[in-house]
Write a structure and sequence with these properties.
single chain, mainly alpha, Serine Threonine Protein Phosphatase 5, Tetratricopeptide repeat
């Protein structure tokens, strides 16, 4: 179950211009330090005092920048402050950058690009602070892909480093490193963080960032720990070190340490917003404090936008044996998450809940739950998930049941070795799905077709094959999954002007499926319509001809 939030956090440090007044400059630097350490409350107080004491264009900019940097940007207040700054100085490039950044947040990237370029060009690309602010803006909203552009950020950051000959500001390299981090280029990210390390006044920042990179890299736990330890030795009060340590310890399963890391981060940063509380709810689940996890979720529910909250609540409720409520919450989660983005644990948790509901169900509902549970538990196994002991649950549902592990032959085993060696081997996945179907391992076949679909989502045959396997597993198709797969195949193939023999064969299967489905629903007109389509591509189709007789 992947609960690790993939983000760099608020490590973007706003560079200060050479402002008149030593005390004002010192206060700006103090506010910048707070903002770069997730100490949002202290940053806000600092910038608000500056605006009261000296309502200058630059001070309004920094207050506006605060409202854009917080976890839930307040666009209205940011805009108000930038406009107040421009009212005092209509040529304030910083406040113009602030308004362009708002356009970026709102998805008006082309307008933002034009504004940024105009401002940079107006300075003849010779103002380091302007280049820095623009490069930072393109990274700022890293939870909104449509509002980021890391290539643009790298472009402006590189102009900045080319301009500043002495290159003595560590935040410039950190900015460039952050862009490469977000582009998933850890090598260049570490390279720039290492350059920052050589000149940084507070070396805990680059040490923590390097530790964060290694902490996300499999097999590099030792390097991660070394850099985190150096960060703490250098400055034990830098909050983000503990935030990154939290993510690292969750990844490697050291949940008690992760819990302590998160508490330390909250204590130092005083940042306890809904996002941080959600992280605390997650790690409380991992340390088996389910009551605390549920309590945190209840108190922050409306402020948590991540749909994962439904799954976390379901997991907590399972531990309280409240399976009915768990079922409601997990189904809510699955309605939001597209099938292509679901994890093995999603199916496993669903199967666990369904299996627990079987005992209290009666009649057809009991059988439907049992079949659905077997399907989802087997799919979780095929995806390598180990949230629960799925094999034991399967045996309780039906002693002696044949699962993916027990339905096999030499061809299947050889093909499994092939895909294990190369997960992108589409030919072997196709052969494996077909062999599993022939061996009557229908759930295994479905899982293999799913792998093919994830690798080649435009390949129509995979949807037809998946539909056939789902239908063979459950002729009633109570969950509607076979219908979804057959419908997807029809939508992809039917519009073609000409069809190959294979396409006609699969179309006939799909059309006949829907014809029989309509017949059993008592919809004669719909059944006849699909029969006509079947016979148009396969005039001798025996299943269609038999149904035609029943409809006469």
């Amino acid at each position: 179950m992947n609960y690790i939030k993939k983000e760099i956090g608020a490590t973007f440090v706003i560079s200060a211009m050479m402002l008149p007044g030593f005390l004002n400059a010192q206060s700006i630097q103090e506010g910048i330090k707070y903002l770069g350490s997730d100490q949002y409350s202290k940053a806000k107080n600092t910038f608000e005092k500056l605006v009261v004491q000296s309502p200058s264009a630059n001070n309004y900019y920094y207050l506006g920048a605060y409202y854009l940097t917080i976890s839930k940007p307040d666009i209205e207040l940011a805009s108000q402050n930038f406009n107040k700054g421009l009212a005092l100085d209509s040529k304030s490039d910083f406040n113009r950058i602030g308004l362009a950044t708002i356009k970026l947040y709102q998805g008006n990237k082309s307008e933002a690009n034009a504004d940024f370029e105009s401002i940079a060009k107006g300075s003849k690309y010779r103002n380091a602070d302007i280049l820095y602010q623009i490069a930072k803006a393109y990274q700022l909203f890293n939870n909104k892909p449509e509002s980021t552009d890391y290539d643009k950020s790298i472009e402006y950051a590189q102009r900045l480093l080319d301009l500043v000959k002495n290159k003595d500001k560590s935040e410039y390299y950190i900015l460039l490193g952050n862009a490469y981090f977000e582009k998933k280029d850890p090598g260049k990210a570490v390279s720039n963080y290492t350059k920052a390390l050589g000149i940084a006044e507070d070396k805990s920042i680059p040490y923590a960032l390097i530790g964060n990179i290694w902490g996300r890299t499999n097999g590099q736990a030792k390097l991660a720990a070394e850099n985190f330890n150096k960060a703490i030795e250098t400055n034990p009060n830098y909050p983000l070190t503990y935030k990154y340590l939290y993510n690292f310890n969750v990844k490697i399963g050291n949940y008690n340490d992760a819990f302590n890391n998160l508490q330390k981060y909250i204590s130092l940063s005083e940042n306890n917003d809904s996002g941080t509380q959600f992280e605390m709810a997650k790690v409380s689940y991992f340390v088996k404090d389910y009551a605390k996890s549920l309590d945190i979720l209840a108190k922050n529910w409306d402020d948590i936008s991540d749909p994962l909250k439904y799954k976390l609540k379901a997991l907590d409720l399972i531990e309280n044996s409240d399976f009915s409520e768990a079922y409601k919450n997990l189904n809510q989660y699955l309605q939001i998450i597209p099938e292509t983005k679901r994890e093995g644990s999603d199916y496993g948790v669903l199967g666990k809940i369904q299996s627990s509901l079987v005992n209290k169900a009666i009649g057809q509902e009991k059988e439907n739950l049992r079949k659905a549970a077997i399907f989802n538990l087997t799919k979780a196994i095929s995806n390598g998930d180990k949230t629960y002991d799925y094999q034991s649950i399967l045996l309780l549902l039906q002693p002696g049941i044949k699962t993916e592990a027990s339905i096999t032959n030499s061809k299947i085993e050889a093909l499994k070795k092939s895909v294990a060696a190369d997960a992108n081997d589409t030919t072997s996945w196709y052969k494996l799905a077909s062999e599993q179907y022939e061996a009557k391992d229908y759930l295994g076949s479905v899982a293999s077709w799913d792998q093919l679909i994830s690798l080649i989502p435009t390949w129509e045959v995979a949807y037809a094959g998946k539909g056939m396997a789902l239908y063979a597993y459950d002729y009633n198709d109570k969950n509607g999954l076979a219908a979804q797969s057959f419908q997807k195949y029809i939508e992809m193939v039917e519009p073609k002007k000409e069809h190959s023999a294979n396409e006609k064969a699969y179309l006939a299967i799909a059309y006949t499926f829907f014809a029989y489905q309509a017949y059993h629903e008592g919809n004669k007109e719909k059944a006849e319509s699909y029969l006509t389509k079947t016979l148009s591509v396969d005039p001798q189709n025996s299943d269609a001809l038999n149904l035609q007789k029943l409809l006469q």
